[in-house]
Task: structure prediction
Amino acid sequence: MKRLSKCFLNMLIVLYLGIIYFSGVPETNTLNTRIKKQASAVALGIGIWPSWSMFAPNPIRFDSKSFVEVTYKNGVMKEHDVEIEPKGPLAPFRKARWMKYAQDNLRSPNQKGLLDPAIRYFRNKYDDKANPIVSIKIKRKWSEVHPFSNHSIPSISKTPRIEKNEILITKTIGE
Amino acid sequence: MKTLKMMINKWDNFFFEEKPTEGIALFRIVWVGLLLMYYFADIGNIQDFYGPHALISLDTVREQFPMLHANIFHMFNISYEFTYFVVTVYGLSLALALIGLFTRPALTVVLLCMTSLHQRNIWLLSSSELLMRTITLLLIFSPCGHSLSIDSFLGNFFPRFKNKRTWSVWVVRIIQIQVSVIYLWTVFHKLKGATWLEGTAVYYATRLEDLTNFTVPYLMNSLIFLKIMTWGTLIIEFALGFFIWFKKWRKSVLILGIIFHLGIQYFMSIPFFELYLIALLINFFTPEELKAFADKGVNTFIQGIQESTLGTEIKEKIVRTLRENHETVK
Result:
């Protein structure tokens, strides 16, 4: 291998390892904090930011679902799961994207910016020209831990909740 | 000074040792095969996630994700035509990368389309998509199309196509380091969670409403078994991040890791991620071990052709060309 290309490759290796180290390292000192910002910006830009939680720190933080409650002009109220139920052999794979959106992001207090676009989307999806929607709510509900078969383990059968069941947004149409 | 020289030599040996290209080529086929599976699964979501009337508009993406990021959707007016164009180009490039035709340009286009679709709606992304981008980016820098590919076959006739026999394995090393980081990262963060420490995490994880797959009724209701599984997860993940680097334990840890991920796939419905990690573990087999495996595959293929009902002349011609190509690559 040519000396110049080896030199370039060495720089690339150091840069890559630097990005994965500094963008993931906790901000424990000034150096980490300073370099972390730059490293994270590069990692975000090219789409390789580190996020490998894999049910850490606790698996239970995933166990909430989001629902859309639609009220029509004639007073009829319908509740829909935000996640669609795809069909076919690839259904679980398709559903995974919806689960990520609804369970990790839409319900999250840190992602309030997603609520208005969601209202717009679900209004288009569920509207009925003959009986228009008058209000839409997006709600978060926690799922109880369900036992496998007919047995559960009494000491851990209650779901520890990290957020309350609540209405995340209510929009009256025509507001 | 001596220590520094020794360290430089070790670094050099670790990243730039010359190894056969079959290993990375085999990984390319497995990896791109999985990407294609993901692609077909995602096709049904185009209108909901990427089109002009998607769940999240491009304006919302710009507003909520203002950092500079790679996304070709920002450069064009978003329309169904453009979205389907990107998706079609993405699919074709994946097919080319799988068969190894114009492999490097194809992988570059794959990465560009993939990153754009992912960053078009980042609120759908999980660790699977992150792995897809990271590993595809690294593959571009490797000669993964120099073996087990149409490029390598064409290399016999046209100098434009190359079929290198060996390469310095730095990309594989980075992939290995990346895989280690994934396991060590998750163990580090899991140790901060009470459920992992008290041994109940697997109880909750395997009972999450949308993630349950199959169960083993008696065992999954036994607190002792669940505790063993929880702490076992931490031990196996740590081993996959650390002990995998030691020659003595490498194969045992690899086998344990593959069983571990298959086990998760059995109990939990987590699409792709476990499959991706199993595929990534391939890179911990030595290039020589993978080359032996690839040779075996090529020989079986040749034998299959010899035993087929094709005309003798055609059979001989195909087998000769395949042998010549394989010998050249060797």
